[in-house]
Amino acid sequence: MAAKKSAGLNLGGVNQTVVLVVVWVIAVIGILAGYYFLLYEPLSQDRAQQEARRTELAASRVREEQNLRRYNTDVAELARARVHAQSLESVLPNDPDIPGFMRSINALAEASGLSIRLIQPVDERIERYFARIPVQMQVTGTYLSLARFFHSVSQLPRVINMENIKLQNPTEDANTHDMLLNATLLATTFRGVATSPAAAAPGATGGPR
Q1: Which of the listed CATH numbers 1.20.120.1630, 3.30.230.70, 3.30.70.60, 2.30.130.10 matches domain 98-197?
Q2: What is the pLDDT of residues 32-65, one digit of tens each?
Q3: What 3-state class would DSSP assign to 164?
Q4: Which of 103, 105, 173, 104 is closest to 143 using CA atoms?
Q5: CA-closest candidate to residue 117, choices 177, 190, 169
């Protein structure tokens, strides 16, 4: 009986326990391989893709934030440039606006107590980047009136030069006993001139001589 039992346990000379162990090892390896290829590997690849996507989104966010900062900087710079351009336009306008200029001068002269005998524009003179616009004036008034007039003109945003000032014929006012003067002067303002390569070239018409 013992011989028969031993023969039953040894299948063709192979121990049944060994066979079971091999089968279990193969099964475990198969399960692990299936888990790796069916679950772990796809999940790992998906995780890697998600990490790459997250990195790409983070880099894109950084780029967008940088672009937004540059945009805000450009907008602020453009606003400053516009304000500066408006300031320059008030100081050195492109439009000469001779009637408006003469009205301002006339109003300031009268408000300062001057009597205007002549206010007449003279032909403008083109320089390289600007044009001179002179206005010949003849006024009568006291020293104080002239001083008030010059001060008022200096407060205007537009650049105005008072040139060639001549004081003549001092006389005493019979009523106020103030000393009145006849003054001739040249009130010169300026306007911007659009430049071009031809205009800027030496010897071009209207350029510096």
Answers
A1: 3.30.70.60
A2: 777 777 777 777 777 777 888 888 888 888 888 8
A3: strand
A4: 173
A5: 169
Six token digits for residue 133: 């616009």
Task: Kindly state the tokens that stand for 18.
Answer: 């060994």
**Rounded distance, CA 62 to CA 145, Å?**
65
Q: For the segment 134-183, what is each residue's pLDDT rounded down to a tens digit?
A: 889 999 999 899 999 999 988 888 888 888 999 888 888 778 778 888 99
Per the rule left: phi > 0, alpha: psi between -120 and 50, beta: everything else, 137 is: beta
Angle at alpha carbon of residue 56, lines to 54 and 60, rounded to 5°: 115
Residue 60 Cα distances to 54, 57, 202, angstroms: 10, 5, 52
| pTM passes above 0.85 | no
Cβ neighbours around 118 below 10 Å, total: 10
Beta-bridge mates of residue 121:
135
d(CA 32, CA 105): 99
Sequence ranges of the domains in the chain: 1-91, 98-197
Cα–Cα distance for residue pair 166/136, rounded to 1 Å: 12
Distance of alpha carbon 136 from alpha carbon 118, whole angstroms: 7
Q: Which residues pair with 22 in a beta bridge?
A: none
